[in-house]
Amino acid sequence: MVTCPECENAVVPAGTPVIGEIVECGECASELEILTLDPIRAALAPEIEEDWGE
Amino acid sequence: MRGAEPFAVLASRVRASEKRILEALSRRGIAHRHIDSREWWHRLGDRVPHPIVLNREIGLARATYAADALEAAGATVVNSARATALCGDKWRTSAALVEAGLPTPRTALGLTPEAALTALESLGYPAVVKPLQGSWGRLVSALPDRQTAETVLEYVAALPSPQARIVYLQEWIAKPGRDIRVIVVGGEALAATYRRSEHWRTNVARGAVSELCPLTPDIAKLAVRAAQAVEAEIAGVDLIEDETGAILVLEVNHGVEFSGLQQALGDEVSVADRIVDHLLEKSRSCSE
């Protein structure tokens, strides 16, 4: 479980979390990036850049 | 540990699709490394310790240069630098599709917004203007008439980047409120989805709903040929149906997201496992 830095909601990643994983806060819909696993910490994910896509 | 991990996955954002791929590699006991592209750098002339690199970098500029550098350093990159460059540019994609004889909407390129306005007289209205690069339907604009075109192109003319002022135009296709996304891996179409929307831009990122589409032989064949035309080994091929029901190839995505499709597919096909299968096949063919 990580705490959303935007709204302090508790966010539980699906399955086994991995570093760099993007998870969405169910409360405020912020995208979070998992930074460390032990202890598990997350920060707001980087803003979408102009050339991002699939 | 150099040389101990033949496979690497290059990605800055581990989205659901990347996580599925990493999980599939781990579950199958395949030694691999996740490389965060925000930290990756390369000294020219060095060899890389990972012979096979799956390029899942979300940023086109980073993905293109990484693929170039990795290939020059001796790695096999999936998708290749050439495929990434072709898929990342709508004009180059369209040119490759036409070269391969595949059906695609009538397309034109204007080197200036003024030239684009002239080209539109030939292409006819309604039409669509799209940025050469970009995903998720961003900045794609409908041009129902000349008046709208003049307005939109005036904005295009004011854009700061020289490349952004190169204008990609396409005829308007009156599609039936949906398009078709086909996942192709290693020359095989795995599955297809309809993306339905009330909005004319049927991107999932814009709220379109995804549901399974029957993978007919015609759809599968067209998608595989489209992926081959741009040399993409892993591809999300976008198809649209016109008023007559004919299917046209719209574009090919080199870094396809598939988690939504996977949820719809259930256990029928594991896209991540098929990607891993393809990497293993590449590894075998590279070592022969």
From TrEMBL, chain A:
Pfam families found in the cross-reference section: Zn_ribbon_LysW
InterPro entries: LysW (IPR005906)
Name by which UniProt lists this protein: Lysine biosynthesis protein LysW
Automatic annotation (TrEMBL), chain B:
Statement: the UniProt record of this protein carries the keyword Nucleotide-binding: yes
One term of GO molecular function: ligase activity
Residue ranges of coiled coil: none
Xref: Pfam families: LysX_preATP_grasp, RimK
Superkingdom as given in the UniProt entry: Bacteria
Domain annotation ATP-grasp: ranges: 94-280
Keywords per UniProt: ATP-binding, Ligase, Metal-binding, Nucleotide-binding
PROSITE patterns: ATP_GRASP (PS50975)
Protein name: RimK family alpha-L-glutamate ligase
Organism for this UniProt entry: Streptomyces ortus
